[in-house]
Amino acid sequence: MTTVTSPEAASERVAAYLRDAILNGEIAPGDWIRQAELAERLGASRLPVREALRMLQAEGLTDYEANRGSRVPKLSMHEVEVIYQMRERLEPLALAESIPHLTPAQLAQLAELEDHIEAELDDVGQFVRLDREFHLLTYAGCAISQLSGSIVRMWNTTQHYRRAFVTLTGPSRQWVITAEHRLLLDAITRHDSVDAERYLSGHIRRTRIELARHPEVFG
Question: Which of 52, 87, 188, 189 is close enough to 15 for a disulfide, judged by CB 3.0 to 4.6 Å?
Fold first, then answer.
């Protein structure tokens, strides 16, 4: 019996493959995504590939150039710095919107994620994945889709540079990240939005300043 895959399901499958490849660093900033090659590799037609690329463009994971196609955005140090400044302003707002609506189960999941983060300090890939999951979960209670969507796009466009930074600085600096996470988690658990916003803003700002000291990350 032949299974018929809907165009929407095919597009989602292609998008999921590309999303993972970009976020995991298999497809790097500046790399072009060739539709014909991708369609052949995944056994898909061109239509779901094109739709998947449109989906990823909306998520900030790809750019489109007329007559050239789609590629992963490559950002300058200044562009990343500005995006981090945007995060410093927007993410504390999203966190304040989220905290009153986080469930006990989500709070327990955040604590569990932080335990896993601290157990994976030597594994850059796992650390970056878990750190992303931790922060985005803290915003799960924010019902303002325009705000939460903007934050996900900013995380997507800077994922490569966070990974490169963590790889460069190594475990010696990750104790700072985990200490800041613990302060943030404590404030969230206490439903203290004022402390949580302050800790989060400082957390993002410190990373921005440290990134600026490593221009080689943007080479």
Answer: 52
Q: How far is CA 118 from CA 9, 128, 138, 170, 176, in A?
A: 36, 12, 17, 13, 11
Confidence bin at 132 (pLDDT 50/70/90): very high
3-state DSSP call for residue 4? coil
Contact at 8 Å (CB) between 100 and 191?
yes
- Strand 63-65 with 32-33, pairing: unpaired
AA identity, residue 35: Q
Please list the residues that pair with 71 across neighbouring strands. 32, 63
Query: Per residue in 98-120, is it b (16+ CB within 10 Å) or e — as a string?
Result: bbeebeeebbebbeebbeebbeb
Per-residue pLDDT tens for 182-200?
999 999 999 999 999 999 9
